[in-house]
Amino acid sequence: MSKPIQVSASILCADFTKLGEEIKKCEDAGVDMLHVDVMDGHFVPNISIGALIVEAIRPLTKLPIESHLMIEKPGDYIDAFADAGADIISIHVECYGQRREGCREYGQYPKEIDAIDVEAARKDVLRIKEKGKRAFMVINPGTPLCLGDLVKDIDGVLMMSVNPGFSKQKFMPVALGKIQELRKVFDGDISIDGGVNAETSPQAVEAGVNILATASYFFGAEDPAKVVTYLKGLQPVH
Question: Would you say the pTM of this structure is higher than 0.70?
Answer without folding.
Answer: yes
